[in-house]
Known about the structure:
The chain is α+β, with helices and mostly antiparallel strands. The chain has helices at 43-51, 93-103, 108-121, 137-149, 167-184, 195-201, 219-224, 229-234, 267-275, 296-301, and strands spanning 4-12, 18-27, 32-36, 58-63, 66-67, 78-81, 155-159, 187-192, 204-209, 212-217, 241-250, 253-258, 261-264, 282-287, 292-293, 306-310, 313-316, 320-327, 330-337, 347-352, 358-361. It folds into 2 domains: 4-234, P-loop containing nucleotide triphosphate hydrolases (Rossmann fold, 3-Layer(aba) Sandwich); 241-361, CATH 2.40.50.100. Helix 2 (93-103) packs across helix 3 and helix 2 (93-103) packs parallel to helix 4. The radius of gyration is 25 Å and the shape is elongated. The mean pLDDT is 93. The chain binds adenosine-5'-triphosphate (ATP).
Amino acid sequence: MASLSLKNVCKVYPNGFEAVKDFNLEVEDQEFIIFVGPSGCGKSTTLRMIAGLEEISSGEFYIDGKLMNDVEPKDRDIAMVFQNYALYPHMTVFDNMAFGLKLRKVPKDEIKRKVEEAAKILDLEKLLDRKPKALSGGQRQRVAMGRAIVRNPKVFLMDEPLSNLDAKLRVQMRSEIASLHNRLKATIIYVTHDQTEAMTLGTRIVVLKDGVIMQVDSPQKLYNEPNNLFVAGFIGSPQMNFVDAVCKVEGEKVSLSFENTTVVLPPAKAKKLADGGYNGKTVVMGIRPEDIGDSEIEIEAHKDAAFETDVTGYELLGSEVLLYFKVAGASMTAKVDSRTTARMGDHIKMAIDPEKIHVFDKETELTIT
Ligand code: ATP
């Protein structure tokens, strides 16, 4: 398998549009890297530059220390799996998987061995004689994977490979891809705009916005310590709540006020705001839906961070409930236990966990704490 290195990579399309700006990333052998970000942020463009399907405008791209910029796609030892599978309808599953090897003039018995091996890994052994139209969406997706696996490439590139599957199949294929990564010990770069896929599959996630890397970190780190407002809002579902708040520093005590509520920050967070000179300034307070509670225990535990509001929406998810409400004009969501008695239209009390508060600079949108 392989390590990848992208140094100051840029892509300017012929019409002058700068789709990827100064992209720097070191991918270690066997990593599962996810590119995630909103539509048009440059995920596919970057993947296509790695594959050699798109020219790199400036910067360098290396595989195992070897410069790849001018190496033909077929010589890069990379296999790509697309969202539309691109299977040949007139060929059997076996022939679809064998096709690339036949083109490379691999001996027949070796092709047979490799296809059967991949079919075993992907649980396709009983389907090798079928044509794609006689397969389910998930099975077709596995054949597309199989076609990549038989080549035993150094790197797998996957561009939204699950986006054509229904919700249930997506979940199933997601765990299959995770176990495939474990078994193949492969280096994988995977593009998605689905942040659940990103969080569950990736060893590291690259969050992109307008062609610029916003943060590269493990799923856990992105969730707990986002670099800025954009990453904080993009990672996590339902997304983090944001409300403008005024910071007040009185000695060691630092508080954030919004509407009729004043939340005293824990010491470590307080210090960052005091040291940053935020006294009297408006900042953006971020709190995840799961860190707002409506139970008596939570309200008692976080008395100083309690507030009252009207429930404007109620959604039962199963074991949890989403409550929608407004605070200081901002629409907010809380994810609470389904045993809650709160219902649409109720006036209720809730509390924020101050330890879980994120604070962002309103102008730079960078994380303060
Ligand atoms: P999506 O999630 O919608 O697939 P993406 O993050 O993969 O989006 P890209 O396909 O990489 O985005 O496109 C990045 C930007 O480059 C977009 O604004 C797109 O319009 C632009 N773009 C893509 N191809 C070209 C092209 N051939 N010429 C000019 N601009 C292009």
